[in-house]
Design brief:
The chain has a single domain, classed as Roll (Pnp Oxidase, Chain A). The protein is built from four helices and seven strands, in the order βαβββαββααβ. Strands 2-3-4-7-6-5 form a six-stranded antiparallel barrel. It starts with 6 loop residues before the first strand and ends with a strand.
């Protein structure tokens, strides 16, 4: 990282920031064409999970290249100034590089859905019908490298 004084190195702090986030920008690439899409995600302390449609551009691209990147910015604020060039931004951000896989087993899908639900609510008694699980597509993203930054 170019600005080392802004880097977040503590893994517990990075995990806490990941737990505070709600929306991630998921980046995929296929045959040299990038694609970025905002997604709701869940973080279970090890992996990230994304709910998606059972067909579409994300899955088409993942079938050719499972490498992904997520950008998460759970908090930010503008710091105005009298001079336009002195404006600034206060923020926390996380970048996750990893590999995505499509979960096919019902237990894995339920675990992914639980992580997503817990990202948005403290309610923990989630039940899913067999029909809903069969229709659900969950991506599991296993991080290879996570960086954090704060300004």
């Amino acid at each position: 990282m170019r600005r080392g004084e802004k880097e977040i190195n503590d893994q517990r702090e990075i995990g806490a920031i990941l737990h505070r986030g709600r929306i991630a920008f998921l980046a995929l690439a296929d045959e040299g064409h990038p694609y970025v899409v905002p997604v709701c995600y869940g973080f279970d302390g090890t992996a990230l999970y994304v709910h998606t449609a059972q067909e579409g551009q994300k899955l088409d691209m993942l079938s050719n290249n499972a490498r992904v990147c997520l950008a998460i910015v759970p908090s930010w604020s503008i710091n105005p100034a009298d001079d336009a060039c002195d404006w600034g931004l206060s923020y926390e951000s996380i970048i996750v590089h990893g590999t995505a896989s499509i979960l096919t087993d019902p237990a894995g899908k339920c675990a992914g859905l639980d992580a997503i639900m817990q990202q948005f609510t403290s309610y923990k008694d989630h039940t899913y019908t067999t029909t809903a699980i069969a229709k659900t597509c969950i991506l599991k993203i296993e991080p290879d490298h996570i960086t954090g930054k704060r300004s």
